[in-house]
Specification:
Number of domains of chain B: 1
Number of helices of chain B: 8
Number of domains of chain A: 1
Order of helices and strands of chain A: EHHEHEHEEE
Shape of chain B: globular
Radius of gyration of chain B: 24 Å
Strand content of chain B: 15-25%
Strand order of the largest sheet of chain A: 1-2-4-3
Number of helices of chain A: 4
Structural class of chain B: alpha/beta
Strand order of the largest sheet of chain B: 2-3-1-4-5-6
Structural class of chain A: alpha+beta
Shape of chain A: globular
Largest interface: A-B, 24 and 30 residues
Low-confidence stretches of chain B: 1-47, 68-74
Number of strands of chain B: 6
Oligomer: heterodimer
Mean pLDDT of chain A: 85
């Protein structure tokens, strides 16, 4: 019976790495058929670079990734709330939020809205049993 | 209002460039006033000053010509069409080309990743009233995070062709991302019948904003029943969203007007 593996990566594990180092580390885990749960997020350049590197590594086995980032955007609400949000961003930066990276062979779709992420996995293919 | 603020910020760069180019072009085209030969000279002093003026004029003309030619080239802004596969980027590129050049730009298909390499149509001039805008149109392959050749097999392609198409498609995505830095203005084309709040759309727009490139979001396929522009507006509240049907040419005038606003 095949299980689903989720691997949590605290931000501290990628904090000191270069952009390329971060991308390689995250992709390596995804290529092991594990779903990555990264504390925080990559910056915009790194997100684009992650897509580029993923494309370079696609082959018959590895079909790519599904990517979802949830990051609190404080665009509405009271002024005090916005200021608090601003301070939190200033202090925590990319450590805020959550990034999910799943191999496309396992994760069919990541649906998101500003407050939640839904992850849909692919249904395993049914193999016909040979009649004897 | 956040939408207006963001638009102003995002349009700043292209606006400055366009103004600079316009100014230098005006200077370059400004005719140098030659002193009239048949006009009697008022005094010897004035004739010596006119000779001095003429020398200055020659230098001025030379400088204007050199600087003008540099910025004249820059007037042809690069307008990129970006978005996920099957959003209708090539259909829009074809529509723009048919409207202003009378010819197509590329082939379209219901199967994803039909456009697998960057296509450029140079020097498209669009007009709106007295305004004129000249740009190079760059149609890019759809950006995706996964490409499976088996999806093409399911569409009826044989395995070899499907694998080749998948390989080309991955290269196309890489090229499209590489080209982001070269764009002056970008139109993000989103299929208005699909969920717009995808990470690909967010990543594309986020990268454009980070690079200070003006962005216009276009919700395509508004001719279809499932089309829902409000979903796009809700997903990207900081931006103006224009609903069009590139296939039938609906609302194209609004799109052209918005392009003028962006580069002004």
């Amino acid at each position: 019976m095949g299980g689903l593996t989720l691997q949590f990566i605290p931000y501290s594990e990628i904090e000191e790495l270069s952009s390329l180092g971060r991308i390689k580390k995250l992709l390596k885990i995804a290529k092991e058929n594990k779903i990555v749960l990264l504390e925080g997020r990559l910056n915009k350049d790194e997100e684009a670079e992650l897509i580029k590197t993923t494309m370079e590594e696609i082959n018959d086995e590895f079909k790519g990734i599904e990517l979802g980032v949830i990051y609190p955007e404080q665009t509405e609400g009271a002024l005090l709330k916005k200021i608090k949000g601003g301070f939190a961003k200033l202090l925590l930066g990319n450590r805020m939020g959550l990034t999910i990276i799943g191999p496309a062979s396992i994760v069919k779709e990541i649906k998101k809205d500003p407050t939640k992420i839904e992850l849909f996995t692919t249904t395993p293919r049914k193999t016909k049993k040979k009649k004897r | 209002m956040p939408r207006k603020k963001s638009k102003k910020r995002s349009g700043k760069k292209a606006g400055k460039k366009a103004k600079k180019a316009k100014k230098s072009e005006e200077n370059a085209e400004e005719p140098f006033e030659e002193p009239a030969e048949d006009q009697p000279s008022a005094s010897t002093q004035s004739s010596s000053s006119s000779a001095k003026n003429e020398k200055l004029g020659i230098i001025k003309r030379f400088i204007n010509k050199v600087i003008g030619s540099i910025f004249k080239k820059k007037k042809h802004i690069k307008l990129g069409l970006y978005g996920p596969p099957n959003g209708g980027k090539t259909t829009l590129a074809n529509r723009i080309c048919i409207d202003w050049l009378g010819e197509d730009m590329g082939s379209v298909s219901a199967t994803a990743h039909e456009t697998r390499e960057i296509k450029i149509k140079e020097q498209i001039n669009i007009k709106s009233g007295k305004k004129e805008l000249s740009f190079n149109l760059v149609d890019t392959p759809g950006i995706a995070t996964k490409i499976d050749y088996e999806d093409f097999v399911k569409k009826g392609m044989n395995k070899t062709v499907a694998k080749k198409r998948a390989k080309e498609a991955t290269k196309g995505v890489i090229d499209a991302i590489k080209w982001l830095d070269d764009m002056d203005v970008v139109v993000v084309v989103i299929d208005s019948t699909m969920d717009p709040y995808t990470q690909v759309n967010i990543t594309i727009i986020g990268n454009l904003v980070a690079r200070n490139i003006p962005v216009l979001i276009v919700g395509n396929k508004i001719d279809l029943k499932k089309s829902d522009l409000k979903r796009i507006e809700a997903a990207f509240p900081q931006y103006d969203v224009i609903g069009i049907s590139a296939k039938f040419g609906k609302n194209m005038d609004k799109l052209y007007e918005s392009l003028f606003v962006m580069v002004d």
